[in-house]
Every structure is written in C-alpha cells, then in structure tokens.
Amino acid sequence: MMPNQLDSDNSSITNQTYQRIYSMIIQGELKPGSKLKIEELRKIMGTGASPIREALSLLTSEQLVNRIDQRGFRVSHVSAESFAELLKTRCWLEERALRESMASQDMQWEERLLLAHHRLKREARILEETGLINPNWELRHKEFHTSLMSGCGSSLLIKFCDQLYDQNIRYRNAAGSISYSSRDVGGEHDLILKHVLDRNADKAVAELVSHYKKTGEFLALQLK
Amino acid sequence: MMPNQLDSDNSSITNQTYQRIYSMIIQGELKPGSKLKIEELRKIMGTGASPIREALSLLTSEQLVNRIDQRGFRVSHVSAESFAELLKTRCWLEERALRESMASQDMQWEERLLLAHHRLKREARILEETGLINPNWELRHKEFHTSLMSGCGSSLLIKFCDQLYDQNIRYRNAAGSISYSSRDVGGEHDLILKHVLDRNADKAVAELVSHYKKTGEFLALQLK
DNA sequence: AAATGAATTATTATCGATATTATTGAGCTT
DNA sequence: AAGCTCAATAATATCGATAATAATTCATTT
Questions:
Q1: Euclidean distance between CA atoms A51 and B221, whole angstroms
Q2: Over 70: is that where the pLDDT of B9 sits?
Q3: What is the tens place of the pLDDT at every residue in B56-103?
C-alpha cells in the first residue's frame, strides 16, 4: 500500500528501494511494460541486488510489477481493457464497502469521513505556480476515498480497495491532468458526503460510482 | 495463488522454495504466528538465503506471511476475529463474482462449471485408508469454487477470491476434518449448480453464502 | 526484588562474486 | 529469404561471507 514517506531514511535499504520504485511506477517514470533490470536499478539506487529483488517481489503483491520465473521483473502493463476491468472492479468493491460502512451506523466513521472531506477541500488540486497536481491534494484525496470504506469492518476489503486505488493513480498520471479539468470534482465529493450524512445509501453509492465512471470515460478516451 | 505442483523440479529454487513454504503454511506445518527464521529455513531447504527471502516476500502478497522491517518474517496469525472477517469478505466478493458470472450469460462458463462439478463429485473427500482429506478432492473443490467466479469478467476480483480461498484452507486444516463430517457438503454443491443452471441468481447466491456460513459456524466453534 | 545498562549472542539485511539460464546474432542450410 | 544451430553475450538467480540490527543475558545499582 501507500508507503510511508516519513521514515524513508532510517528504514532498511529494501524498504527505501521499495518506496522509490513504487513511486517511480505510480508516477510513470518507469514505463508500463518496461523491463526492470536488476543491474540497472542497482546502479540507480546504489545498492546490491538483494534489496532490489526483494523490493520487486514485494511490489508484485500490489500488481504493479510482474515476475516471470527465470526472466525477471517488468512493470505491469496498462491497456484500455485492463483499465475497464480495474474501474469495474473498483465500483463493485467500493459499493460493497460503502454500503457496509453506512450500515454499521458508526459515529466515529462518519466523523472521520467529515474530517477527511474538510481536509481535502482545503487543498487546491493544481498548484498555481507549477501547474502540476498538488501532492497534498493527492494524499488527501486518497484519504477521503479510503475513509469512505474504512467503516466496512473488513481490513481485507479495505486493503483490496487500496490496491486498486494505487493502480488507478497510474492511469490518472499517464493521462495527465486532463481527466479532471472540465469537471467539478469538488462538487462530486460534496455530494457523496451529503448523501452519506443523509444516510441515503443508494444515492451515496450512485454518486460514488458515477464519480468513478466520469473519470473513467475521460481516461478511456486518452488510452484511445 | 495455488502453486503448480507439476513443474516444481525444473523451476527456479525461489519458486520451489515458495511452493514448499506455501504448502507448509496451508497445511499448518508452520504454525500461525511462528517466526520464519532464515537460517532455519535455509537448512531445511538446503539453499542460500536469497531464495528464502524472496519466496517469503512473495508470500507476503498472499497475506500468508507478514514482514516486519528489520525483524524478519512470521506466519500470519489466525484468530476467531480474523476468521469472521475472512468469511464475511469472501461472501461479499463471491456473491458479486457469481452474480456477474451469471449475468454474463456465458455458455462456456456454464459448461466449465458443470465439468468442474462433475470432477468434484468423482472424488471422495476422505480417503478410506488414511482417514485424511483426499488431496485430489481439495484440488477439485477449489476448481469448482473458482469456476463459479471465473465468468465475472474481472481477473482482479478472481485473484482476490483466490487469495481468500487459500487463507480459508488454513482455517479448515487447523480445525481438522470435523467441520464437514456431519454435513452433506456434496448436496450443497449440487444445489449451487442447480440454481446456476436454472439461472436463478438469488437462490444460487443464497445457497453459496449459506454453504460458507455453515462451514464458518463449525470453524468458529473450533477456534473457541 | 525491580530496574538499568553494558556485553554477548542471535538474527536479519546486505554485498560482491559466481553459476545458471535466457537472448542475440552470425554463419550455415534448404 | 526464411528457418535452424551454435557460439557469444547479457541477464537472472543463487551462494557464501560480512555488516547492521535486534534480542538476550547478567552483573550492577537503587
């Protein structure tokens, strides 16, 4: 899942390597489908082969890396089909997670969500100066979406959703910031929150799913 | 996922190691929560440390092993709570997968399922001679359950379900064969198939879920 | 006796070198 | 030219040794 940026120094070389490769893949620095040569990475990271291999093995869980016996590792490739599959699967799992969260009637969960929403609103999505996506927004956005599911009562399901979220970021970054530009993404988040607080599960789910599908349509176009 | 038993010889040492440790965990030979010391495993497997570490890193994806930075690997532990969570999550995901499979109206899928069911029926669950679970039954049983979901159109979801299935086997083996003894498990499988072929999704799902919940109640008792 | 902390031991993490296996390409055959 | 074989090359997988870190022991102090 999302590596913790804070303790990147004192942690093991394997962990540091893991985190660096993780973000290089998410950011699209390492191209989908490209070969991850141990020797090359070894030079870039300035380590031995073991931490590299171990980090890549760990990244296999996240489905960001594929390992083929005796012929090494590669960045898992992207395609319009696998994006469609990803989107579909996310909708299925997150619908379930959101419904369960809402059914639990957990006050603390509602409060966590409200807070996450507030923090997200406070961040601008695009930085004025650079025109790039604000990394804080990215963080808060993930936290908001994670909060929606965090009350479902299954850490397994939360983990799966988290994995899918990370896979999705890769597609977003690949497509650039276009996918959001013409939309009122903030308004969509507001609506989701509103329906949750109104305890209207059907509407909340419908809004969440439409939120994903809208982004999906843009991205699908980008992928030709 | 389920390692392929056939090519265990000519594959890499890492893969062989992976498979051996995998089944040792599933079979309960390596106790939940126990420490996986590299040096010990090294001696048992007769290899260097690298394949061991890499295999353990791969098993982390399956959630069968936990890795804690700087203090090694351990078999992930079992508990009544995490079993309940596992069971719940399996029901959620498999319901979705089964509904989607059925909605797809895929002839080939139905035929695969019928075949898997037939092959399962042909195997006895318990071997007369030894009184142990027939490994062929175990294999066919997994294939039958996998078939149910294989038409859902999302390899991601199938993989998740597969992971959860493997985690579940561990609980079954821990509890011994008691969990099934007093039940007509074969009949439950027949009913699931019947409802699928009747194209009655609600009944099929209900039967599948009740199939899991029945096993779950037995296991939950075993776990005290 | 409980708590502290330095010294010892055990274990993990990492490196550098080598064995093993895949890939490439040049020369040969049809 | 397309296909095949076999050497040359490149990459992966693995080993054995060592450095870094955690866990344990045991004497010392309160």
A1: 43
A2: no
A3: 999 998 899 999 999 999 999 999 999 999 999 999 999 999 999 999
Residue B164 touches partner A, C-beta closer than 8 Å:
yes
CA distances from B107 to B85, B99, B197, B199 (A): 34, 15, 10, 12
Which tokens in the block code for residue A15? Answer: 């962990």
Which tens digit of pLDDT belongs to each residue from B16-46? 999 999 999 999 999 999 999 999 999 999 9
What architecture is the B80-223 domain classified under in CATH? Up-down Bundle (1.20)
Q: Which of residues 78-117 of A touch strand D (CB under 7 A)?
A: none
> In this complex, is the C-beta atom of A215 within 8 Å of any C-beta atom belonging to chain B?
no
Is the CB of residue A10 less than 8 Å away from at least one CB of chain B?
no
Of B86, B154, B156, the CB nearest to A156: B86
Position A126 scores a pLDDT of 77
Residue type, B172: R
Closest to A96 (Cβ–Cβ): which among B85, B96, B100?
Answer: B96
pLDDT the model gives residue A174: 81
Quick one: pLDDT band at residue B4, thresholds 50, 70, 90? very low
d(CA B100, CA B25): 32
Q: What is the pTM of this model?
A: 0.91
Rounded CA–C1' distance between B51 and D4, in angstroms: 36
- A179 pLDDT tier (thresholds 50, 70, 90): low
Domain range summary for chain B, segments of one domain joined by +: 3-75, 80-223
Same fold, A3-75 and A80-223: no
Task: Give, in words, the CATH class of A3-75.
Answer: mainly alpha
Query: What would the mean pLDDT of B42-57 be, rounded to a whole number?
Result: 96
Residues in chain B closer than 8 A to A15 (CB atoms): 69
User: B156 to chain A, minimum CA–CA distance in Å?
Assistant: 7
Q: Which nucleotides of strand C are protein-proximal, with an atom < 7 A from a CB?
A: 11-17, 21-23
**Which residues contact residue A206 at a Cβ distance below 8 angstroms, ignoring those fewer than 6 apart?**
none
CB of A196 within 8 A of CB of A204? yes
In a 13 Å sphere around the CA of B181, the CA atoms on its Cβ side amount to 9
Start-to-end C-alpha separation, chain A: 29
